[in-house]
Fold:
Amino acid sequence: MKQTILFLSISLLFSCKNETTELNEKEVIPKEIESNKIKVLNFGTFHFGNTSDANKTEFDEENRELQNEVREISKMIAEFQPTIICVEELPQDNEQLNILYQDFLKNSSVLNTKHGETSMIAFDVARLNNVEKIYGIDNKMGYNYGLGDYIENNPDLENSIDSKTYLQLTNYPFKDYPEIVKRKKNYDALSVLEKLKLLNEDVYLDHLMNLNADKLLYVGIEDGFQGADNAAIFYQRNMRIYSNLNRIKMNENDRVFILMGAAHTAFLRNFIKISPKFVMVETLDYLK
Structure:
């Protein structure tokens, strides 16, 4: 009897091991599938020039030292070896955009600073990789960034959804991340490279989704959806940007570099994560 029980126990153990082995073998499959996906370097930046964004970074694009630093960053990004480059410009402006790029190639020793990060980074990365054409994938839609603050600061109005969470996201967005708080407090003193590293960390990208849209989901007047409706506009804009990305003809041998304001990078990150078509590389691996 004891021998029978021992035999059954050993059989069950081997059965479990075989089942585990089968599961582990199945887990390898997604990695093989990923190798057939189009690699994407989804890169977030602050805007180098004028911007209507809610948050702005002081940046003197005519400063030679900053220009040299930007060129070094472009060399780092160029190591990704992109074949397709997408920027925060409208698709209908692609012809003019590429005329400017071709003009830059004629005298590439001088950075074109007239179009912010598009001309200072994307043009140089394209040059370093012999990319012939740059694609604008932006879509413009206006919405009320400050709706929540307006409601919170207006004595005649009351946020009827969740004022506590809204104010926490507004005033203490990195409550659980003291290291990010420290770096953010010192943001203006950081080098361009360190600023870009911060912007491209997952925690910071999550913050930008809250800052630009998701915190409005905690805002409304009476039984209305004023906050959610405005957040939906920003979501729609980013969905349209992603659709414009998918209009570009590409195959599994292409490598896509996307240079956008970091709030758009945050949304694109989530779309690309669940895509059957794309796989993201780690941005910070290219910022050494």
Observations:
- Residues 158 and 221 are 6 Å apart (CA to CA).
